[in-house]
Amino acid sequence: xxxxxxxxxxxxxxxxxxxxxxxxxxxxxxxxxxxxxxxxxxxxxxxxxxxxxxxxxxxxxxxxxxxxxxxxxxxxxxxxxxxxxxxxxxxxxxxxxxxxxxxxxxxxxxxxxxxxxxxxxxxxxxxxxxxxxxxxxxxxxxxxxxxxxxxxxxxxxxxxxxxxxxxxxxxxxxxxxxxxxxxxxxxxxxxxxxxxxxxxxxxxxxxxxxxxxxxxxxxxxxxxxxxxxxxxxxxxxxxxxxxxxxxxxxxxxxxxxxxxxxxxxxxxxxxxxxxxxxxxxxxxxxxxxxxxxxxxxxxxxxxxxxxxxxxxxxxxxxx
Length: 319
Ligand SMILES: NC(=O)c1ccc[n+]([C@@H]2O[C@H](COP(=O)([O-])OP(=O)(O)OC[C@H]3O[C@@H](n4cnc5c(N)ncnc54)[C@H](OP(=O)(O)O)[C@@H]3O)[C@@H](O)[C@H]2O)c1
Prior knowledge:
This protein has about 325 residues and is an alpha/beta fold. Helix content is about 40%, strand content about 15%. The protein has a 7-stranded parallel β-sheet, sandwiched between helices. It binds NADP nicotinamide-adenine-dinucleotide phosphate. This is TIGR01777 family oxidoreductase. It comes from Streptomyces gibsoniae.
């Protein structure tokens, strides 16, 4: 198949591109700063010659969006919103204008669309979309507004020949440098991989290989459209997530951090505590119902596998 990945130069795009290319597909990446063969220039907001890459393609997986790992300043939040809404809109316009539109458009969304909660898991049917939870910082609602606007842009695109799926993905855990798992492992190795603010908040996650398999599954399944949760069936409280990472790497201690210590750490790392403190208890209702099986459903085993692969990178690559 010919698969086009707008925003495919980042963490998720790189691992998806690698896996799909290895499986024999032709992958074209749209990037604002193309440097590698197979990358086509676009600006993420206006139609241009790049749209020809979509015409006659089989699949589009749009991953474009300003990184969410940043301080949630007004400017950054606006850039997070605009980059997602604009890129989803213009991808929809390119598909609508194509003489031979792709069969399916997988649009990245996020598991963050669901409410901060501890009591029960969120699946697509019964889950609570967030934004009105009591007792959480008001600005957390902005991430949910972004997710809703992002999905709305895909919903309203007039692309009758193209099936549309929104990927409500949890954190994609891969051994690649600079990804979420890499950062958590770095903290673990420093002895800082302990519970944060008690660690009861749930972390939803998906192993990179299951993420790729889920994408392939959704490409093949013509009967599935709309929002789909991409998350392992067993989200874990943050303290258990870190405990498994300590066990996997062989680190005896992980200092606990209070909320204000997390604030300081997040400030130093130029990121936001919402990523650490929000309880994302998200489960893959529709994938399981459709018969998808996870190769890595449980975190302790998934963490061990990822650590094994990080160790396989060799000491220079690990540094
Ligand atoms: N990583 C995860 O675990 C995870 C989980 C759930 C959802 N997501 C979402 O999935 C998408 C991909 O995640 P990722 O971790 O691969 O992100 P990433 O590493 O930040 O990559 C996103 C890509 O989007 C492009 N981009 C950045 N700012 C842009 C802008 N203003 N306009 C247009 N394109 C822009 C960049 O490509 P160029 O610079 O080459 O143009 C970048 O490589 C993101 O939207 C993210 O929010 C990620």
